[in-house]
Each structure stands twice: as C-alpha cells, then as structure tokens.
Specification:
With 536 residues, this protein is of the alpha/beta class. It has one domain: Alkaline Phosphatase, subunit A (3-Layer(aba) Sandwich). Helices cover 30% and strands 18% of the residues. It contains 15 helices and 22 strands. A hairpin with a 2-residue loop joins strand 21 and strand 22. Helix 9 runs parallel beside helix 11. The longest helix is centred in the middle third of the chain and has 26 residues. The protein is globular and about 90 Å long.
Length: 536
C-alpha cells in the first residue's frame, strides 16, 4: 500500500513538473549572417546622395482590400476621391500583390526588397508564448479561439531571443539606405516589425518615430461620445480591445509614451506634415523620406461620429463603421497631399500608396468582391492590394498597369528613382517598375511570384497559380486569367502542369531560410465549400 502510494505521489509530482516545466530551447536562437552583415556595412559606407534626390513618401493603409475602393470595384468599393485623384496624377496597378497576406511579413518584404522568407521572417513577431504544457493545453482545450487554432506544442525561444525578433540586422532596410544617402527619415504610424530595443524604429534607420510598435491600437478613447465603435465577437478581436493602448500598443513619440487625444487617423496626417514642415525649416537642402503608416481600416473599428453619419444608407452597423473609416482615411490622405501642395513639394516628391495585404474578410465588413478568401490566406483576397504611384513629370498621368507586380517592388523603384545603385551582395526580388510603366521595358516585371507561410506555399506564373499545403500534401491549380475568383481547381485536369509548378515552388522554398521564430496559431477558412488551414 505504501509502495503504491509513493509511486502515485511520485507520478503526480513528475506529471506536475512536466505540466509546469517551461519548453525553452536554443533552437530558436537568432543568429546573424556574418557575410551579409559585412556586405551591408560595405554597401552603406559606399553610399552618397544620389544624383537625383526627390522626396519620397510611402502611404500605407492597413488591411484595405483592393475591392474596398471604387477605383478597383465600382460595385463593392467605397468612394475614395483623394486616392482616385492621386491615381489620376500617376499610375495605379490593377494586379498588385502583397508578399504575404499578413501585416508584418508583408511590410518586411516591402522595406527590404526581398521575399521576407529569404531571411526567415515567416510570421509576425511574438511577445508571449504558451511556454509550459499546462498553459498550452489549457488554452487549446478551454478557450474558444474561433477560427484560430493553436499549432502543436513545441519548443519556444528564450526572452532574450524574442527581443531580437524582426528583420535581421544584416538586412538593408530602405530607410537605412536613404538615411545613409543624406535623407531625413520618419516613420509616422504603425511599425509591427519587432518589439525589442534593437528593433525599435529609431534603431532601424528612422530619425523620427511617432506611432506604435504593435499590430493594432485604439484609434481613440471608446468612451468618447464622439466615437462610434463596433466590436467583433472574435477571440483575437477581444484581445485587441483588452490591450487598449498599453505596452506596444501605446502611442510613442521618439521612444516616449504620450497621451494622444486625437483620432489616430488625423494624428498620423498631422504628424507627417509637422515632420515635413520642421524638416524644411531646418534642413531645406536635404530630401526627406516619410513612411506614413496608417492603421485604418484595421480593427478595432472606431470612427468619429461625423464620418459614421455620412453613411445612413448602410444598415449593417459593422460595414457602416468600416466605410466611415475608409472615408476618413481618404480625407486624411487628401489633407496630407494638400499639405505637400501648399509647401510646393508635389513636383519633386515620389508618392507611393498601398495596403499591406488584402481585406480582412473575417470581420464580415468586406468580402473582397469576387476574390476568394482574405487576409491570412493565400487566396487572391488575401494577396491582391491597391497600389498607386505618383511622380509628376516622371510617371505619366492617368496610367494603369495590368501586369502582376508586388509590393516588394517599392524598394528598387525608390532606390533607382533617386539613382542609388542597388546592393549586389544579396538576391533582391524587387524590380524597378518605372521602366515598365513608361513602356521602356516590354517584358513582364516578374517571371513568377512566390509566397510562403509555414506549411503553405503558392506560386503564380504565366496566369496560373498553384497553392500547396505541405502538411497534408494537397494542392490546387487555378487559371487566374479565366478564373480570378479561384472557383475551379484544375489540378486534376492539368496534372503535368501542376507537377511542374509544384517542383518550381519547392525550388523557390529551398532558397529560403528556416523561420526565425515559431508561430502559435493557424487560421481556418472555408472557401467554395472546402476547409483550408493557413499558417499565420
């Protein structure tokens, strides 16, 4: 009896120890590429101001699907007259794609000119992991996480390694190159590319930072009578509302947390113009680069009542607030552009507008028009984005460009526009789009487009698109020329072509480094009656 009792107690102690033992591992230690670090140093040291020095402004929307704009979809889209006016002064791309259907990886690709998986940026940087089994299994079995599903229990990085998560120090950020080329640089708005000190915007090439580090934050105080809010009944949305403006969601100015009273869409515009005005007053001979990274229309859905009241015809409260956010965003961008005009800067400023990924269909405020899926998925609804460039006198007015391009092309387009040589020590996936827009180059900008997120791989080539799930071995083949909505899987009809693209997408994956950190959730979605799982 005593022996059985002791064995039971021992087993219970060991089981309790197992439940509470943290699963940290050095396997997730982040190591820098010494060769690329050396190449980066040499490249930056070689830079001088380009022979042509236009100002550069990149305006980012957050989760704005292409079909949310009437410019792209007159039936489902909202009117955005200021963005349409911007398109009239330059080019809008009818087939633009994000390098990821998720915020952070997409932004990393844009700012480095490389498919972010080349350096292991597969998923969003993390602040917290279920590091011991009790926490993991409690979450998995006791928490309703809706369409999000915890990945299998694994090992996790130490805290010091979590601080390093973000774009590796060996990568050449666009803002670092521009700063070294005598540009004043500012990030106004959302960062979402790392939380540690080494990844802070002020330590990654920006002279000025106003905004927040997290993927999301409050636009305004929800208790303000002038604010209309819509809260989605989803696991991750409840987390967003509970986070408020605490921690990385706090609003910072140059590293100091501030109490921002303005609606954030207005604040980002006003802070962008303030930076430009101050820059001109003190450094009128230097060009500037501003990344105006709006967080609209990302959740939480919050808008000024004056904008909400503009849409009485929309009965769905969810979509009404969403439409109001897009209208406010367009007005804010209009004020930013007008400010440039008032300062006499438009003629010498390259302006790029884009969204980081497709519309977040899980909010039910957007359906991405005819496109399947949405944010978090590698269907077209998650990848296709609005994309506009304007540069008076250099890019012709009222132009549209129809060949497939990618947000990553921003990098080379900017650097070659200011006549700075591109780095040669690393593979760039970015292409300067201006010669294609001008018609000087008749070829397609890209032979193929490639996406990777965990076990999900996709390739698009010659009008065909293959999606491949490495976990279950399933793949789908679509002809996007004839079937933009991805409603007909043609893999069984064209097995040889499927195998050719499968071979090619695996070859492209082999050029990528393993993920630098583990993800924690996968997203489930039903498309055309079939359930799909996507790594997030």
């Amino acid at each position: 009896m005593n022996r059985k009792y002791l064995l039971s107690i021992t087993a219970l102690v060991l089981f309790s120890f197992w439940l509470l033992f943290p699963r940290f591992s050095k396997d997730w230690n982040i190591l820098e590429d010494d060769d690329l670090l050396s190449g980066k140093k040499d490249y930056l040291n070689s830079l001088t101001r380009g022979s042509r020095s236009p100002n550069v402004i990149i305006i980012m929307a957050d989760d704005l699907g292409r079909n949310d704009m009437a410019l792209y979809d007159e039936v489902n889209g909202f009117k955005t007259p200021n963005l349409e006016a911007l398109a009239d002064t330059g080019v809008y791309f009818t087939d633009a794609n994000a390098s990821s259907p998720v915020c952070a990886p997409s932004r990393a690709g844009m700012l480095t000119g490389r498919v972010q998986n080349r350096y292991g940026f597969d998923s969003q940087p993390m602040q917290l992991y279920p590091t011991f089994p009790l926490l993991y299994y409690s979450f998995k079995y006791l928490v309703d996480s809706d369409e999000m599903h915890p990945v299998p229990m694994g090992k996790f990085p130490y805290k010091r390694e979590m601080e390093k998560q973000g774009v590796p120090q060996s990568e050449l950020y666009l803002q670092e190159v521009l700063k070294q080329s005598d540009y004043s640089t500012a990030l106004i708005g959302k960062w979402h590319l790392g939380y540690g000190e080494s990844q802070h915007p002020l330590n990654r090439g920006f002279d000025k930072f106003y905004g927040f580090l997290e993927a999301f934050t409050y636009f305004a105080d929800p208790d303000d009578e002038g604010i209309v809010s819509y809260e989605h009944d989803l696991f991750w949305e409840k987390h967003i509302w509970n986070k408020k403006r605490k921690g990385p969601s706090a609003i910072q100015e140059d590293g100091v947390v501030i109490n921002e009273k303005r609606h954030l869409t207005d604040a980002i515009t006003e802070e962008s113009l303030e930076f430009i005005s101050s820059h001109l007053a003190g450094n009128s001979e230097k060009p500037f680069f501003v990344l105006a990274a709006y967080n609209a229309p990302h959740t939480p859905f919050q808008e000024l009542r004056e904008y909400y009241d503009l849409f009485p015809e929309i009965e769905d409260e969810n979509r009404r607030v969403y439409g109001a956010m897009i209208k406010h965003l367009d007005d804010a961008i209009g004020r930013l552009l007008q400010g440039l005009d008032d300062m006499g800067l438009r003629e010498n400023t390259l302006i790029i507008f884009a969204s980081d990924n497709g519309g977040a269909s899980y909010t039910l405020a957007t359906e991405n028009g005819e496109l399947a899926g949405g944010k978090l998925t590698q269907f077209e609804g998650g990848l296709e984005i609005p994309f506009i460039m304007s540069w008076p006198g250099k890019i012709p007015r009222n132009t549209n460009y129809d060949s497939p391009v990618t947000l990553i092309d921003t990098y080379s387009t900017v650097l070659e526009a200011i006549e700075i040589d591109l780095p040669e020590d690393r593979i760039l996936d970015s292409v300067n789009l201006i010669p294609f827009v001008l018609g000087d180059s008749k070829e397609e900008p890209h032979d193929a487009l490639f996406w990777k997120s965990g076990f999900n791989l996709s390739i698009r080539k010659d009008g065909w698109k293959l999606m491949y799930n490495k976990n279950n071995g399933e793949y789908q083949l679509y002809n996007l020329i004839l079937d933009r909505s991805e409603s007909q899987d043609l893999s069984s009809r064209y097995p040889e072509h499927s195998q050719e693209l499968l071979k090619e997408v695996l070859e492209l994956e082999s050029q990528c480094k393993p993920a630098m950190w583990p993800r924690v959730m996968d997203f489930e979605i039903e498309v055309n009656g079939k359930t799909y799982l996507f790594a997030t």
